[in-house]
Amino acid sequence: MRAYDTIAAISTAVGESGVSIIKVSGDRSKEIVSKIFRIKNKTDFMEAAPWTIQYGHIIRPDGEIVDEVLVSFFQGPKSFTAEDVVEINCHGGRVATESVLNEVFHAGARPAEPGEFTKRAFLNGRIDLSQAEAVIDIIQAKTDLSMKAALEQSGGKLSAEIKEIRDSILNLLAFIEVTVDFPEEDLEFTTGQEVSEKLSGLLQKVGSLIRTSEEGKIIRDGLSIAIIGKPNVGKSSLMNALLKENRAIVTDIPGTTRDIIEEYLNIDGIPIKITDTAGIRETDDVVERIGVDRSKSKIDEADLIVFVLDSSRPLDREDIDIIEYIKDRKIVTLINKVDLEEKLKLDGYDLGETIQVSALNGYGLNELKDKIKQLFFHGQVEAKDYMVTNRRHKEALMRANEKMYAAKTAIDQGISLDLAAIDLNASWNYFGEITGDTLSEDLVDKIFSDFCIGK
Ligand code: GDP
């Protein structure tokens, strides 16, 4: 294991709470904490057995008590970072927590950088990069399904799959090398055939992994849906009706602007960001213009557009302008207010799939939810044992796939095995980027810098 200095940070959210946890990691963590921690039964913390909890007080050098605490000691390598880790449970709230942390710093630890604990777990070989990235996905999970997918990844399911493919490629490379070392033409031909066959199997495997990424991305990051329709068709009523049963628990709702309202839904585990747009009416009013521009950009970014029409009013210019604007997009059209007398005629406009709803009494909303599941998940929403949820992983897989394909094509066309080996080697490297085996230090640093402090 590499030797690092000892770091400390608050691992819990800062604010009023019952307890806070301060995490200390590194060779000197036990020694540092023993300088400021007085155990109730007067024993020395240096003598504390691993994986036990001690009760006592954090004290200043002048003997004054800072806080009453519980302190646990995890001896490396059986700890989160694979180093010696000490966790101090102190009282929650900013003052208690920061006072304790300050004493830890005075005793010799330095402040941890964002993601540094998880980074050490990676650098010390306890987890690979895709598992480390899953830690942040767990923390940021938007629904139970996002959480499940992140847990599977942190448990190493995806890594195991990648490792198996990588090992197979390494075997093929070794096989090619032996052949090239004994150049008899027959041998080169039969080896080529065998490698090509094995590559077909591997390409299929990688192809199905890549295919999980579309659903995987939605499970991790969510779908974004924009509701659009002229004023008074029932957009906000619809949003409220959907939210009543399906509101998702989210910690950070980005700013709701005056003209755009965003909320999070949880539909069978799919995290959905739903935006009620202000409309796209042509206008000379400067303020209104800003709202329209914002609405348009929300509509342009959305994965799906839910277009709302009012069944109790005839189609008019404003509806038609919207239809024109969204005609090439993935849309679901809702004919709202079907509880009222019907006056709407679609006049031959192609609006894709239409669903009759009433935001007032909830009629048709289940059909809308089923439609969303069908459009993005073929009807069945589930987290597979392993799926690619991270864009970085998907991109590495695509590049690896391309190189494997190039190698197979070269072999099938009778081009020398030497050249195919170059492509295979490149694909082996791309697979390694997912697990972090072949990623440059700079990129690794960048990935961890997106974490928050204390993780
Ligand atoms: P928005 O401007 O598109 O957001 O429309 P609102 O949600 O504010 O709705 C406009 C009006 O239509 C309100 O008075 C709602 O109560 C009414 N409304 C919305 N949905 C329905 C519906 O399904 N049936 C009926 N009868 N009225 C509705």
From TrEMBL:
Signal peptide: none annotated. Its cofactor is K(+). (6S)-5-formyl-5,6,7,8-tetrahydrofolate binds at K23, E87, R126, K455. Pfam families: MMR_HSR1 (PF01926), MnmE_helical (PF12631), TrmE_N (PF10396). Its main location: cytoplasm. GTP binds at residues 232-237, 251-257, 276-279. Mg(2+) binds at S236, T257. It comes from the Bacteria. It is found in: Cytoplasm. Keywords: Cytoplasm, GTP-binding, Hydrolase, Magnesium, Metal-binding, Nucleotide-binding, Potassium, tRNA processing. GO terms for cellular component: cytosol. One of its GO terms (molecular function) is metal ion binding. Binds 1 potassium ion per subunit. Exhibits a very high intrinsic GTPase hydrolysis rate. Involved in the addition of a carboxymethylaminomethyl (cmnm) group at the wobble position (U34) of certain tRNAs, forming tRNA-cmnm(5)s(2)U34. Belongs to the TRAFAC class TrmE-Era-EngA-EngB-Septin-like GTPase superfamily. TrmE GTPase family. This is tRNA modification GTPase MnmE.
